[in-house]
């Protein structure tokens, strides 16, 4: 294109002379010379213009975009910034998925190994009937953990990519929390924890999706609680209603926005113990997406808040409480 733009004016000037038939002997040589100069000019200019793009192309192909160069035009600088952000997000996502897969393998392996040992006990024979029944119950529990993890994986994958489809209907929220408590009461009893339900309220919600979200939050509470967990329906200052899960566990080691991700398995230290946010992060992510689908939010608070350093709470008999509140903006009359 640059060659044509350079050579076209000369061709326009010489073309009438060629049409009249009066062709000087030097004119063809002149046109060849001008064509050569035009081609060289076009090659040099195009190389100078495309050099920043070729350099950026090589950096993107290598998976790493560096700082802008002095000869980069504004358009290439904008592309460089966009590609750098994209590669950074892709790298973060890949790291999260790799860490999550490592956690998933561990979480799947644990119940599978336990189920294998229990199966060997059953097939080995010689167990009294009461012990056989106990082994069978343990196998059912391990199978239930596997199914729960698989269900959470499927939900997280769907909620990460698609909008949550809701089937709303007037719902008794106290009854919904009671159903969650009845389902998880055996798990609470195994750890010697209390699990209570309080409050009244109704809302037009998807009961199945909301029960799934509250089950995830309650399971996390029972996993870390020291004495118990409490489920309640509470009014919100905004006029909506909240479904609250409260426990006396150590709380979150990072902001909720960082942990409530579908592929986040970064280890964290909570109250001196090592925890992995992998599968717990799945439950938080699903609860957050269900809350957002209802037009609400998932909030986390610590009462009283954790104090830095040696500043301990003044009332050690009242331990800090971890609170998750699934906020719903609309309540039925």
From TrEMBL:
Region ranges (Disordered): 298-320
Any one of the GO CC terms: plasma membrane
Domain of life according to the entry: Bacteria
Main location: membrane
Catalytic activities: ATP + protein L-histidine = ADP + protein N-phospho-L-histidine
InterPro entries from the UniProt entry: 2C_sensor_his_kinase, HATPase_C_sf, HATPase_dom, His_kinase_dom, HisK_dim/P_dom, HisK_dim/P_sf, Sig_transdc_His_kin-like_C
Keyword Phosphoprotein: yes
Subcellular location: Cell membrane
Membrane topology: Multi-pass membrane protein
Keywords: Cell membrane, Kinase, Membrane, Phosphoprotein, Transferase, Two-component regulatory system, Virulence
Top EC class of this enzyme: transferase
Domain spans labelled Histidine kinase: 103-332
Assigned EC number: 2.7.13.3
Gene3D superfamilies, alphabetized: 1.10.287.130, Histidine kinase-like ATPase, C-terminal domain
Protein name as it appears in the record: histidine kinase
Taxonomic lineage of the native organism: Bacteria, Thermotogati, Deinococcota, Deinococci, Deinococcales
């Amino acid at each position: 294109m640059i060659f044509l733009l350079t050579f076209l004016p000369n061709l326009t000037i010489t073309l009438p002379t060629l049409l009249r038939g009066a062709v000087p002997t030097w004119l063809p040589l002149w046109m060849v010379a001008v064509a050569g100069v035009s081609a060289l000019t076009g090659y040099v200019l195009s190389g100078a213009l495309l050099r920043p793009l070729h350099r950026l192309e090589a950096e993107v192909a290598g998976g790493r975009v560096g700082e802008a160069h002095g000869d980069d035009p504004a358009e290439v600088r904008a592309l460089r910034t966009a590609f750098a952000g994209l590669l950074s997000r892709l790298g973060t996502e890949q790291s999260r998925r790799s860490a999550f897969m490592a956690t998933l393998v561990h979480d799947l392996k644990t119940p599978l190994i336990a189920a294998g040992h229990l199966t060997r006990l059953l097939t080995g024979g010689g167990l009294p009937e009461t012990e056989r029944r106990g082994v069978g119950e343990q196998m059912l529990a391990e199978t239930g953990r596997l199914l729960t993890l698989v269900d959470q994986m499927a939900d997280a994958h769907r909620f990460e990519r698609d909008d949550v489809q809701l089937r709303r209907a007037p719902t008794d929220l106290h009854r919904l929390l009671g159903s969650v408590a009845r389902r998880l009461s055996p798990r609470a009893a195994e750890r010697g924890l209390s699990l209570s339900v309080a409050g009244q309220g109704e809302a037009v919600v998807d009961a199945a999706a909301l029960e799934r979200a509250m089950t995830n939050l309650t399971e996390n509470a029972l996993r870390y609680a020291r004495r118990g967990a409490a489920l309640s329906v509470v009014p919100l200052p905004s006029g909506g209603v909240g479904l609250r899960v409260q426990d006396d566990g150590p709380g979150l080691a990072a902001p909720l926005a960082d942990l409530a991700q579908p592929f986040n398995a970064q280890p964290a230290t909570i109250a001196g113990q090592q925890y992995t946010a992998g599968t717990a992060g799945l439950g938080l992510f699903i609860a957050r997406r269900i809350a957002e689908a209802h037009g609400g939010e998932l909030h986390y608070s610590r009462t009283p808040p954790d104090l830095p350093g040696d500043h301990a709470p003044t009332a050690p008999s009242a331990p800090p409480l971890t609170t998750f509140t699934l906020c719903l903006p609309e309540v039925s009359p």
